[in-house]
Amino acid sequence: MPNSLHRLSYLSVATLKPLSLIGLAELLAISQRNNDRDGLTGALAVSKSQYFGVVEGPRDNLFSLVARLQRDRRHRDIHILELGPASARIFGRWSLVADLIEPSLVVSLADLMIPDALAVETRLAMLEGLTGSLRQVPGMR
Known about the structure:
Elements: E1 5-14, H1 21-38, E2 41-47, E3 50-58, H2 59-71, E4 75-85, E5 95-98, H3 106-112, H4 120-133
């Protein structure tokens, strides 16, 4: 079914160096606007110059998102870990974890960023735990 619930998880490298709080805020504002429009929710983990993203929503909208990410000059080396059906949303709102905001997360976030080091399910559980233990970033829905 083209609009059934699906989940995308990916790793990418930020081209904004060094990644600043302002750059991160701009990225999140644009992403949130687009994702609200497309019925997408998820979480983004940021560590140094790497992203681990999980996005959930209608399949066709996720395919469009992948195409946008591949054209987005703020990302490179996009590595799709998972793109498939999901029985339910894990992230019902937008969440963010970043070592720039929460330095105590450096080790946990670094583990999420290693390609092929963890199963997708393990990454999802870690990200869900990290986002659930932190307060929501102001301005995020």
